[in-house]
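[agent] plan:
  1. take the single chain provided in the ticket
  2. run structure prediction with default settings
  3. attach C-alpha cells to the ticket
  4. add a short note for the reviewer (M.T.)
[agent] executing step 1
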Amino acid sequence: MVKVCIIGTGYVGLPTGVGLAELGHDVVCVDKDEVKVQSLQRAQATLYEDGLEDLLKKNITAGKINFSTSMADSVPNADLVILAVGTPPHPVTHEADMQYIYAATQELAQYLKDYTVVAIKSTVPVGTGDRVEQMIRQNNPNADFDVVSLPEFLREGFAVHDFFHPDRVVVGSNSERATQVIQDLYAGFPDKVNMLLVKRRSSETIKYASNAFLAIKIHYINEMANFCEKAGADVLEVAKGMGMDSRIGPKFLNPGPGFGGSCFPKDTMAMAYMARMNDVMMTLIEDVIKENAVRKKQMAGRILNMVKDIEKPKIAVLGLAFKNGTDDCRESPAMEILDELLKNDVHVTVYDPKAMANAQKILGDKVAYAPDMYDALTGADVLALLTEWDDFKELDLSRLAQSMHHKNIVDCRNLLSPEQALQHGFKYQGIGR
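[agent] step 2 finished; step 3 output follows
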C-alpha cells in the first residue's frame, strides 16, 4: 500500500485518485477550490465520467480517499505526490503554461518530510522534471526525494475504464528507488501492467509524440473524407479497409468535424512550439494545427448552406461536448462550429445529454437550451449532429419528419443511416459519404 497525495482534482487527478483508492492505496486529493473540495467530500463528483461517482462513493465510505485544500496537512504523510494540475496553452505563444505546475512545486517542496517520490502526471514540456527537481532543492535543500515523469493516457469519457485497463504505463525515472515506488503503486492491478521504463526526458516526450501522431491520423482521414465526397467513394468503407492493415489499425479513423478537447489541440501546439525552440521543423504538425481550425469553419459552412434560402433559420444542434462520454466542452469542435454559426442571422437551439451546464458557461444566452433532443428539433430547419452520443444514433426519423419545419440533416459524425434519412424525405449530408 502506497500513501498517495494528488495535487489537482480535474479530469486527470480525480479519476486517478479514485482508481488508486480502489486498488487499496490511501489517497488524499488536494485542490485550492474549496467549493469543489466540499462537493467531493460529500461524494459528489465534480465532473462526469462513466462509473466515477459510484467508485468515489464506495472509496469515501471505505476511508480510502479523502479531499483537502491543505498541502501542509497532506504532503508530509505521502510516499508519492502526484502533480495533476492544468497546463493550458499560453494565450500568445501556445506553449504549455507552466505557472500552475511551478506554483504547486514551490508550495509542496516545503512540506516534504521523509523520502518522497514526486511524479509529474500533467502533460509538460521536455525538461520539466529537471526544473521541478531544481526548484524543490532550492526551496528545501534537505529534502529526500526523486522526481519522475508519469504521463497520463486516460481518454476523457473512458477514464475509469482506461485506468484499470491501461495500454501501457510509462515511467520516466533516473532513480531505481523511485522506480520501485511506482512499481509498488501498480502491483495491485487486476491484470499485469505493460510498464515501460525510460529516461525522464523520453517519458515527457512520449505523451506529446503520441497525441500529435493521433491528431495527424484524424486529420488524414478527414482529408480522405473530402476526397471520397468528390470521387464517389464511402469513407467508412475506405477507413475499414485501411484499418484492417495491422500497420495502420482501425482506431482514430473516424471522420468528423476535426479534433478537439483538452489534449490534442493543446499538445499539438505545444509540440510545435518545442520543436521551434529546438530549431526543428515539424511542418506536418504545423499544417495539421492550421487545417484543423479550417475544418470547423467548413462544417459550419455546410450547415449554413443547407438553410441559405431560409430567412433567419432555426438550427438544432445535438452535441456540445468535444466527444461522447464526457461533459468537457474545452476546445470542443461543437463550440467552435457554434461560434461560426452565431456570426450569422440564425436562431440556435442546443442539447447535450451531459454537457449542458458546461456549455452554458461558455455560450451564455446566445442560444436556447432544450430539455431533450426532440424538443430541440421542434420547428427546426436543419439538424446538426456534432457529438457522437449513442442516444443520437437512435433518433426516430419519422418523428423528426413530423416535428421539423424543413427536413435537413448535417451529420458531422456519420451517426445516422443516409438511406433511412432519404426514405423519410430528408436532405442528408454526412462526412465522406
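[agent] step 4 note for reviewer: The mean pLDDT is 95.
[agent] ticket updated
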